[in-house]
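Aim 2 progress update. The chain analyzed this quarter is reproduced below.
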Amino acid sequence: MTASASAPIRLGTRRSALAQAQSGHVADALAAISGRPVELVPIVSEGDTNRASLSVIGGTGIFANRLREALVAGECDILVHSLKDLPTAVPPELVIAATPPREDARDVVITRDGTPLHELAPGSKIGTGAPRRIAQVRRRAPHAQVVDIRGNVDSRLARVESGELDAVILAAAGLSRLGSESTLHREELGLAEWPTAPGQGSLAVETVADAPAELLAALARLDDEDTRLAVTVERAILAGLEVGCQAPMAAHAVVTGDSIRVRAVVYEPGGGRRIGLDVTESLNRGYIRRNGSGNDADAADGADPMCTARGIGDSAAHRLLEQGAADLLP
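Predicted structure tokens:
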């Protein structure tokens, strides 16, 4: 493949305000790095047209499949995904060329008066469509009523403002990227007691495996190694459990120097039982020569740190299964 050095880079994105906002951030950064204009190409996915509950239609690939078809067909040059919505299996003709620095991975509770989630009155209506969040709400606020909702951020906030709902659970990263301003109150939920979806807060920039070398090199400069290592572990856990991204499970990893701390929890859908682990492992990356490609690093002496990260995630998944996690998963 070849491309004119002055031709615009076409960035495929969903039409939602959040998708457009996060794609715009990547577009600006890529334009500054590459010296080429980057134009957004709006694409409608099944997740944008099918309004059924995610727990019913299944979330795996619902936001990504149509975009990937457009990329392979040459309708665009790159895609920007919310990594938590991306299936763990990457088609062989595609590559995740960059994972930019991660935003806040926490969930937040939005209420009218600032009442903490666990103190909401019995019968309070809490809106969320994610099976993980539903299970977590049922543990944290067992006397509340969970309302299965879909819709963009503004529509969810409006349902709290109007009094239709008493609270909604949203991703902090989405609110930050949208720059949402509201008089509603926010309660940040700590990751230790309320871990979030694998990849939450992270973006994935995807392109075809045979993309021009200059495009791959420019995308590599958007990549953040600590983010890639962390989400590689998280997504390996998800893959090892052999469930989709709408499963009632959470995984969050944090890199500190040469070690990575991993917290993962599998929830019973009703919120009754949970199985979790909290481990710290070595990444062995002190012996690695980075190749700067934005993909898996080449090893000079020792293990590939991305292979090590996948192994840590796979091991964590096996430990969860040994503890009985399969009995809780759909």
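Confidence is low (pLDDT under 50) at residues 54-58, 288-302. Residues 17-34 form the longest helix (18 residues). These observations will guide the mutagenesis experiments scheduled for the next reporting period.
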